[in-house]
Structure formats: C-alpha cells, structure tokens
Amino acid sequence: MIDTIGAASGEALPPQRVYGRTDDESSLREIARVIRQDIIRMLACAPSGHTAGPLGMAELLTALYFNAMRHDPANPDWPERDVFFLSNGHTAPVLYAALARSGYFPVAELATLRRLGSRLQGHPERKTLPGIESTSGPLGSGLSQAAGYAHVLRNIKRVRGRFVYTVMGDGEINEGNVWEAAMFAGKYRLGNLIAFIDRNYIQIDGATEDVMPLTHLRAKWESFDWHVIEIDGNSVRAVVEAIQLGKAVSHAPTMIIANTVPGKGVPFIEYDHRWHGTIPSSTQAEEALRILNGGLDA
Amino acid sequence: MTTYPIAPDALTKPHLEPIRFGFGRGLLAAGELDERVVALCADLTESTRMHLFRDRFPERFVGVGVAEQNLVTVAAGMAHAGMIPFTSSYAAFSPGRNWEQIKTTAALNDQPVVVVGSHAGVNVGYDGATHQMLEDIAIMRVLPNMRVIVPGDSLEAERATRALAADPAPSYLRLARDKTPIFSTPDSPFEIGRAYLLADGRDVSLIATGTMTYHALVAADALSRKGISAEVVHVPTIKPLDSATILSSLRRTGRAVTIEEAQVAGGLGGAICELTAAEHPVPVLRLGMRDRYGESGGSTELLEKFRLTGTQIAEDVDRLIQG
Fold it and tell me: Where exactly are the structural domains of chain A?
C-alpha cells in the first residue's frame, strides 16, 4: 500500500532507505522531510490516527534519532544507549517513521499502522515493536518514567554520559502527573534528563490558551528548578543546539520548549486543530506528498 | 489433609503484630539480597514501614512526596532501568488514585513494579470511609499481567515480600494497619499462586484472605463445637487463583463461604463465584463488605458492625447450614 501511494505521487525516494547518524544540517532536514512523507503515507493507509502533531514533531525526532542519541537499531536493548520516552503516545506515527528510517524494522511495515495484527499499535506498546521504550497514550506519564530512569542512572548507578529524553504535548501538561514529575526531577537534580514540550498551541477541543491557558510557561518550569530553553522546534539546527546545551547542564533537568507548527510542511493542515485527530483522504495525501516533494508530482 | 504449620496457641493466646510490619522486614531482607531492589514512598514512609529500608539503603530509597501518580510512574521508569521497585502508600491512594498509571506503565508495559497498598480494609478504624480501601482487590485483579497478594499475617507478609522481590513482575501487595493475630509460623510455606488448607473439614469450606483467615480459623473452631466440620482454605494469592486447591476443597464439602475485609463484589467473593460458576457450581455465601463504605470507629467495633469476627462468622455459617 505504502509503495503504491508513493508511486502514484511520483515519489522519487527509494522507499526502503535507512539513515544513520549525521551532523550535516541539510541531511537532517532531508530526513525530517522523508519522515513527514512517511507520516502522510502511513496515515493514508490507516483506518484512523493523528496527523497534525506528528508532522509538527518531525524535527524533534530527527534531531534525537539521527544526531543526538546514542542508540543501535540492531540492538534495541543496548545497555549503553540513550533512552527516549514518547509521552504523547498519539503522535506514534512520527516515532514509528523515525524508528523505521533508523533501521529498527522495515519501512514497508509503516503501512500496517493500526491494523489488526500489526506491531504498529494505535499508541506505542513496549513489548510489541523494537525500539519502543515504554507504552504510552494516556497522557502525563512519560516525564515521570523518564525521570525514574534518569534517577537510576544519575543517582543510583552513577552512570555518566547517558541521557534520557522525553517529548510531551503542550495540551498534555494539563495533567497533574506532569507537575508531580516536574517537582521530582527538580528535587533530584536530574541533569541527564532532557524533556521537550511540543508547543503547538492546539489540543483536541481547540486552542491550548482557550482550553486551559499555559501562560508563563517558561517561568513555570524555571520555578520548578528546571533549566529552560525556548526554540523554534521546526528548525532542526535549533533542536540540535538546544540538546547540546541541555547536555552541558549537569545539575538540573532541561526543558526545551519547542515552538512548532502543527501540521508543519503541509499548508492545508498547518495550524488547524481539526487535524489533531483526523487523517488525510487519499486525494489529500497525494496533495500533501506533492507539496512535501517540492511541488513535483512527476 | 492439611500439613500447614499453625502457631501454637494461635486461637487462645495469639501473638499480635500489624501485617505491614512483616512487609518492612521483608523489604529490608530483599534489599540485602539484591541491590536492584529500590523503595519509593508517597510521604508515608514510617507507617508503611519503609523506613527500615530507607535507613539502611538511603540511596535506593526515593521519596516522591504526596504524589501517587508520580509514585508508580517513576517506579515504572526505574524498573525499565533494571531495578525492582516497591512503591508504598495507603491503598486508598495507591492503587486508589493511580489505577490508570498502574495499568499502562506497570501492567500493560509489563514492568516489575510492586504496588504496596497499606492500611487496606476497615481495620484502619477511626480515619473513616475515605481511608478504608475496600475496592482494591477488585480493581487490581482485573488487570492482565497483575498479581494480587493479600497476606494473612505479618510473618506471611514478610515471606510474600521476599517472594515478590525474587520473582519480579507487576504485582499488588495488600497490607493492613492494625495489629492482627499471627497464625502462621516461621516454617509455614508461601508461594505466589498457592492457596493453603489450614483445617480439614467435611461440611463447608471457609475460604478466606488477609486478616480474615484468622477469623475463619476461630469460626471453624466454634463450629466444630456445634458438630459442624469446616475446612479453612487460606488464599493469600487472589491472582493467579489456586483453582486446584479451592476446587478440591469444594468437591469435599459442597459449600463455600468467602470471607474478606473488602467489597465482596469483585473481591475474593467475586473470584470464587467466577470459579465455581464455571467449574463446579456450589452454594456460595460471601462475607465482607456488601456495596457500602466503611465508617469511623475502633477496628474491632467495625469488624463487629460488619459481622466479620470469628464468632459472628460461625453464626452465619451455622445459619447457612441449618438452612
């Protein structure tokens, strides 16, 4: 299915191509573009899913999986790896694309998203697919799991040089569990913990600032003794640099507030909260793929 | 025939100790044996008896404040990092408040988090209904991957805690606050998933868990003086349920009385009804809390109010048998 859509839209990329770690900014931007196309393709094949969030997070996952994190797709449980917890599990398509393009499982398997018997469950499940560190979907629990992992590394095993990452949605931080974890990570000075808020200003019921305002977001986290960095989350270079800054802070956890555009890269999806939990039709998918292909549909 | 060693004088002059004290000792022992064992608590460290572990292994103790959702999710993260976490709070709050987090990050995730719910049942006493957790057996035993352990006395709690640490998997351990009689001995067995025959009988099976097992022994003794022969089956593991032991008792007696300090709906009573309805239908009388909350009072006063003392249980069983 996935290759059919790719062929129909004139997709020129080798569909099975896998990417390794790179420091080259243009290569990272290209990987983010491929991941966006994968997201559109897999959602077009799926019976349901979320579109806007995954598209907006492509640079975050690209910077993590293709630059910042130490990991080995051939050995997902490698004991020396960095660990990533996707907290807003409904954005699974961007994680699945990043894992597939890293080589954790065949890219073609992306076409099975949400289907009966698929390893690509609607929300990620740890024991189902290689590379998934924890089951998620119910919001608000990724930060505390990441903090628990980071606490073991930093304060019990006293391991240096390994980092724990997590991404949350901005609507997600309405959850009380997040603030319990915020206090915890500050108290235990988890300098090996780097968290992101995907700050795209939408949630299911509408604009985040209408549903439950997140005013003074930076000050909120600073007041919990976090090191806070605010960036353009759709600039892969900004994401890479923010992670490097976060790694250099050893006495406090780092929160990267990543301002992103929901649906980034596909203008008719961008900024529209109605795309939170809907998927593109095949016509819309072809149009989106053409846009992501630089307007070429040849 | 029963081979389970019962403490001498258990019925006449029992030694009393809170069940949670055995947990505290067991956790300390487990911590000595395995450095992967860590302890997390939500601001109730002494009353859940985790202070013994905290004082011996301060670096492996994690205080999370009054934050039960964080308690189990931090534990799940620590389990993923290779540790064997025990989390403790009052059962009313954990698993009372954080059930979804337990389901998703421990049970579905299959991480070996042990949720320890202390102060369960009405024996909490004066604190009243908000603090008397009665629904925990029901909400925990419906979770796939989850084991549910309800020790009968402090010695068994110690054995159960060590057994859980030695066999890491998602688990719930239910403890009680008040001093309760010790009926087992240091040589009594405990295996996860086993029920134990404590007294042989022909007329009825008293199937009890937790604090109620002692009262079942008292009831069986009282019934024997009335010429009724009651078998006592102690069920410290509600899940996985030891169906073989329970069914073999029911094939002998043909009648079940379940006894628990919890809601009978979904609790041990519910579990036994599910088993008997499917495998060996017999009349079942369910003693415990019947679709109501507890209230303030002394723990013995409350047990009497809800007819959960040995003497009252014997009266109810006698009435059942006399028909």
Answer: 2-292
